[in-house]
Design goal:
- The protein folds into 2 domains: 6-146, Rossmann fold; 155-211.
- The chain has 9 helices and 4 strands, in the order ααβαβαβαβαααα.
- It has helices spanning 6-19, 34-45, 70-80, 95-105, 118-130, 137-148, 155-165, 181-194, 202-211, and strands at residues 52-56, 85-90, 109-112, 134-135.
- It is elongated, with a radius of gyration of 20 Å.
- The two termini are 29 Å apart.
Amino acid sequence: MVDDHPIIIEGYQNTLMATKQADQNLHIDMANDCDTAELLMRKSVNGIPYDVLFFDIRLPGSRDGSLASGEDLAMLSKEILPDAKIVILTMFNEPYRIHNIIKAINPDGFLVKSDLTSSELAEAFQHILETPPYYSNTVNQFMNKLVVNDIHVDEINRKILYLLSQGIKTRSLPEHVDLSISSIEKRKKQLKDLFSVTDGKDETLLEEARNKGFI
C-alpha cells in the first residue's frame, strides 16, 4: 500500500485485516513515497511477489526524477509485477483525470477516497481478488456517462476542454498542446458543433461538456 499519509494506510490496513476471510493470510507492506515503493516492489520479485498493489496518485517523486506519481508506479508495476492486481486510491475526481488513469493503467480497482467507507473498502478488496474490476461510485457515474453518451471526443479535444476549464486562455493553449492556434480554433468549432453550442461561447461549451461528464 502506497500513500504519503501513514495514518490513511493504517486505516486501510486495519480494515482489511479485520474483514479478511478465514482462509486469507494478509501480509501488508507500506510505503509513503515512490522510492520506497519501487524498492519494495523490486525486492518482492525475488521473494514473494505482491498479489495486490494499492497506489495513491499524488506522491513524493523519486530522487532521480524517473517516478513522479502513483500513475508512474502503476505503470512500472505492470513491467516488474505483471500478475499483481492494481488498485488506485485517490482524491482526484475530475472526469478528465479518471479517463486518463483508466486508459493508461486499466486498474483492477479504482476508488475515489471521498466515496470510501470501511465497509466499501472491504467489499472492494474481495471483489478485486475474485472478479475485478471494482470502481467506486464516482468512477462508475463517469463510466456510465461515457457508455450512454454518443459524442466522440478524442484525447486532444479532451485536453483542450480540460485546459479551458482550468482557466487557460485559447491564445496560451499552444504552450500545452502541440497544435497551432488555427488548428485549436478549428477543434473548438468542432467541439461546439458536437455539443450543440449555438451561442459560440467557450463558457457554454464548458458547461455542456461538464454536464456530459467530459470535464
